[in-house]
Amino acid sequence: MDSTLQRHPGYTPRRGGGLTGYERVLARAGLAPVAGIDEAGRGACAGPLVVAAVALDPRRRADLAGVADSKALTADYRQVVEHALAWHAVVIPPGDIDALGLHVCNVAGMRRALAGLAIRPGYVLTDGFPVRGLAVPALAMWKGDEVALCVAAASIVAKVTRDRIMRDIHPQYPQYGFARHKGYSTPSHMAALTEHGPCPEHRSSFVNVKGVIRARAGLPPVAADEERAGEEAELSYG
After folding, report:
1. pLDDT tens track, the chain, 238 positions
2. Beta bridge partners of 140
3. Fewest CB within a 10 Å sphere: which of 18, 198, 218, 234?
4. Residue 127: phi, psi to the nearest 5?
5. Burial 84-101 (b: 16+ CB within 10 A, else e)
6. Domains plus CATH for the chain?
7. How far apart are CA 175 and CA 76, in angstroms?
8. What is d(CA 116, CA 81) in angstroms, rounded to the nearest whole number?
9. What is the DSSP pairing of strand 49-56 with strand 34-40?
10. Burial grade of 142 (CB within 10 A; 0-12, 13-18, 19 or more)
11. Three-state helix/strand/coil letters over the chain
12. At residue 174, what are phi and psi to the nearest 5 degrees?
């Protein structure tokens, strides 16, 4: 628990409190409404990164008690949107990811998604890693989409938004099968990438795409130490 809640004795989520536990505790501490932020497409080698922020109506949280991680999609996107006080999704194209780095874009997307909400939350729960500069108190949660309802809702909004984008992109580049794998590095996707080379939707900074680009140009693979240096430099931002 972070220092904000430590200043409110007795406001500690009980074990087994379910997905709404953190939001109920934060509301009792006077920190409502609570917004959750999550992203989709971080691990894909093609397509955009989508970051979403969602603040749910506390009077209707019970209607979403079954919400879980977006990968299971146990709640419908439309249901989440209808139960939200406010929501906002940010789409970050592959070119920005290549130019700025994935982590930098992820953090900037979280800030932009929060700033795009029609209401100002009293507290923010983010999935995975802490984000500076959110202008409101925040807590980073490991596997936040499995333990906080608002983060799970944000995960669903981000994933469904991104899936729709990848299906819309598919007719332009049918040879890659974006409608099936949504830009992730499946065997069929990697086979198509090797055969056809990358398209504008591929992230040329990703090692597998970069490897195909270099191979098609007759260049040697990127050295492992060079890749590690790039990863370390990217994680130093945020």
Report:
1. 455 554 544 455 554 557 888 999 999 999 999 999 999 999 999 999 999 999 998 887 777 766 665 555 645 788 889 889 999 999 999 999 999 999 999 999 999 999 999 999 999 999 988 898 888 999 999 989 888 999 999 999 999 999 999 999 999 999 999 999 999 999 999 999 999 999 999 999 999 999 999 999 999 887 655 554 444 344 444 4
2. 126
3. 218
4. -90, 125
5. bbbbbbbbbbbebbbebb
6. 3-168 (3.30.420.10), 172-235 (no CATH)
7. 30
8. 15
9. antiparallel
10. exposed
11. CCHHHHCCCCCCCCCCCCCCHHHHHHHHCCCCCEEEEEEECCCCCECCEEEEEEEECHHHHHHHCCCCCCCCCCCCHHHHHHCEEEEEEEEECHHHHHHHCHHHHHHHHHHHHHHCCCCCCCEEEEECCCCCCCCCCEEEECCHHHHCHHHHHHHHHHHHHHHHHHHHHHHHCHHHCHHHHCCCCCHHHHHHHHHHCCCCCECCCCHHHHHHHHHHCCCCCCCHHHHHHHHHHHHCCC
12. -65, -20
- CA dist 86 and 42 (Å) reads 23
Describe the crossing of helices 207-216 and 187-196 by its angle, rounded to 10 degrees.
30
Whether this model's pTM surpasses 0.85: yes
Where do we find the tokens 């270099």? 214
Cα-to-chain-centroid distance, residue 114: 13
The answer to whether 99 and 229 have CB atoms below 8 angstroms apart is no
